[in-house]
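COURSE: Structural Biology Practicum
ASSIGNMENT: Worksheet 4, Part C
STUDENT ID: 0417
INSTRUCTIONS: Below are two proteins. For each, the amino acid sequence is given first, followed by its structure token string. Answer the questions at the end about the second protein only.

PROTEIN I
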Amino acid sequence: MRYSLGGLFDLLDGDGEAGFTARGIGPFEEGRSGQQELFGETGAQGPPVSARDLAAVAGLYSSEELDLSALPPAGRRLFELSVNAFDAFVHAWMSGFPVEAETVRFGRKVFAAARRADGPEAERAAADRASSDRGDPDTRTVLETARKVCREIDRLRGLLRFNPDDKGVYIARCAPDHFVLPALCEHFTRRFGDTSWVIIDEKRRLCLYRLKGKAPELSGLPPEFLRLPAAPSSIEWEELWRHYHKTINNESRNNPNLQRQFMPKRYWKYLPEL
């Protein structure tokens, strides 16, 4: 993709480089993730991403209300008209697929439908109808793309395998098809409590991490970190995974076709039990 999420929002109403305000960044700190273009590093794939982009993605998966001050005017307007349209727009951007044109046209059609309505309630109803019109090719593309991203997020919540290193930091590796790390933040923050953890996206050379007592952060991953050998404790942990899987597995109920449907082969290399 060529555009950040903020840049894509700006294209909806032609406001140009309106950018984000300086507020509403949580739960991510401004830190490194706010000062560098994460995908600008050597070997990385994708558009520049700001801390405000991360906040918008994380906000969709947070128990707290999305802080609209972190969005540009067009983004706020889309959210206020239709949460479903906003959700689809953001997830389509997260896909990394070359669907920018369809995504922008989708957003503009939602705005156009609202403008033709009379009154706030009618505007929201018209926007919702436009955002779910699968007869429109742009809308269908955006909705199907968003569905793929949501499905991968759901899969990774269950398929990530964390192993502790020699410092007690739990590390999981993956190579997702889409830019989904920010959407996993709150889920694993709640799951691990005060325990430090790291999720490494090897495809984009990014890592999402939360160290004890600190806020979550997304940063670029040094290339040499991809080649670090597993710690002895991690190897022992993988053996526990294999033993657990062997213990609970019912050979008489094996269904390889169904297994591939819910757990595609591209994930297998990260599953020690397989």
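PROTEIN II
(use this one for the questions)
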Amino acid sequence: MGRIAPRFARVEPRRRAREFVLGLLSDLPRKNCWTLAEHAGNATPDGLQHLLSRARWDADAVRDDLRDFVIEHLQDDKAVLVVDETGDLKKGTATVGVQRQYTGTAGRIENSQVAVYLTYSTPRGHAAIDRELYVPRSWTQDTARCQAAGIPETVHFAMKPALAARMIGRALDAGVLVSWVAGDEVYGTNPHLRAALEHRQLG
């Protein structure tokens, strides 16, 4: 936590971030702001909700700090980047990116929010080093809905392989050395992603 502490302008969100991470790493059977707050000894989830929705901190800088930490501890010449997505089942329509869509979490089409993740994997271990939220066209084509949800105007529709290419590029540009990239057929059959990897001389 000391590595990411400077990314928070105030001590309160820094402490909440620590509580949040410890809760996520706990063996709680169900993890949401209420259960994580109770695990931390808080009476309400207000502090954690503030951290996630209103507090000012640099999430992308924290992502980069995490990536650097992972590489320092797991670096290996045979490292592989693994791309995959996961979905979180949601109720309602207000959560950014939520719509009825296929999610492997449920194994069927459900109301969900989907994100694409990039994992650094070596014989010594593996860890997620990047993420991109999948924002469907039903959102990006609705300017008012995006504004109401706080989505920046710079966010445009991108297919999941394009999100994967973006994350892979970020990792390689940061000096992460890998031998190849793995993903299921959604990624492996995409000609644009394959071309980007070939341009980088990656299998």
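ANSWER KEY EXCERPT:
Q1: The mean pLDDT is 94.
Q2: Residues 58-199 form one domain.
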